[in-house]
Amino acid sequence: MNIEIYQCIEGARQAKGVVVIIDVFRAYTLECVLFSQNAKEIHPVGKLEQAFALKKKHPDWILFGERKGAMVQGCDYGNSPSSIAGMDFTDRTLIHSTSAGTQGIVNAVHADTILVASLANAKATAAWIRQNNPKLVSLVAMGDAGIRPTEEDYLCAQYIRSLLLTESYPIIEKTRALRNGAGAKFFDPSTQHIFPKEDFAYCIDINKYNFAILYDMKKHITIPKKMPL
Questions:
Q1: Mind listing the pLDDT tens digit for each residue in 55-76?
Q2: What's the pTM?
Q3: Listed residue (228, 5, 4) closest to 123, CA to CA
Q4: Which runs of consecutive H residues, i.e. helices, occur in the chain?
Q5: Which CATH architecture has domain 2-226?
Q6: Which terminal CB of the chain, N or C, has fewer other CB atoms within 10 Å?
Q7: Torsion of CA 43, 44, 46, 50, to 10 degrees
């Protein structure tokens, strides 16, 4: 198995084989939470215009939209996992558009298969890949707005790579260090209205969920795939 690590939107455009789009803060942590609360399927889209068009066509669908971290006006929710804690999404269809995570999907034009991941389902993602044993795996750390690398996405990519190669990786130590690094924005009073401090705990809850999240390239939806861990 050949494993490559790429970064940001440009990296997504280069990625081939089984492509894993990684967004820890917060898009794919949020999707983990949504699926754990029984969401049926999620339509990840790049352009807000497309997201609003889907919402207009299907008013019963729930729209999650974020730009520069903040909820987009006219959406039902933003990109905050803590904001939907305990809500029941049973059999609901959702729309999701973000600055980085969903941009990775739409730009992974050379992928054979696409998965999305965060620290919350890293082990399940690696288990799905091992089960399918592809020749080529591309791990794409989406970074800030898809244009600036970030430590949390890159360390998640390194962690998944270590799981695939059965190598040790100090994931707990590195994740704790995020508190005073990339995760400091969750504890800064000037940014907490966009990045609630409660979100940080969701984002660093390593391997909380036992499902990989696959992108159906024909239906353009993400769906969970439960994995034995």
A1: 999 999 999 999 999 999 999 9
A2: 0.97
A3: 228
A4: 8-14, 27-36, 48-57, 101-107, 122-132, 151-164, 171-177, 197-203
A5: Alpha-Beta Complex (3.90)
A6: C
A7: 10
